[in-house]
Amino acid sequence: MSTSSNLSVRLVRNATVLVTVSETTFLVDPLFAAPGDLPPIQNTPNDRSNPLVPLPDIELSYDAVAVTHRHPDHFDEAATEELDADVPLFCQPVEADAFGDDGFTDVRPVDDEVSFDGVTLHRTPGRHGHGQLAEEMGPVSGFIFEADKTLYLAGDTVWYDAVERTLDQFTPDMVILNGGEAQFNHGEPITMGVEDIVAVRGATDGIVGVVHMEAINHCLLTRDELRSKTENVHVPEDGAQISL
Asked: 7-243 has which CATH code?
């Protein structure tokens, strides 16, 4: 599989993206359900069924799958049914057995780093919220995709010291953040809001893009609001691509 760009990210929907590094494409966090097929996230400011929007009409062609964590807005039953059982699937070690139980036969847990088709994947830490709520949300990860160019896909995390350390360590050419400022009825947001994104923008010279917006009922920060409150941040619509 080839591309005219050394590094590109195409937003599918929510956190589902196609990451192309050199000539290898990864499908990240596949959420394939039709609009309204999933229940609303509970204990949130509205009760709209998920996903809120359909998949865009784009080709989903990829060499491997990477899953940052198994929350249902990042990996759903429809993905389990539609993905080939033998697709190379990279994940957190703690969730490897669950993918095996789902019938996947080429599960590749990433403890620290692994290589695939000329790309090195480094698993990075994340904090899915603040305080006790972050603990309750369970383990989450991000990934560095490293070849001639380097992408940092942060996953479901807020801005904290480990994100800053990752930026310093890998100096990525592109950073993809999960925005939306997902919110329960109690506690602080569990994904990045404007302040988090501005902090990342100030900590890297790379391209910054934000996904994970306007697709799930507890993501309250809109694209228009984020665009109006940030500078030099890409906020793609579903189906759009960010390229070097």
From this structure: 3.60.15.10
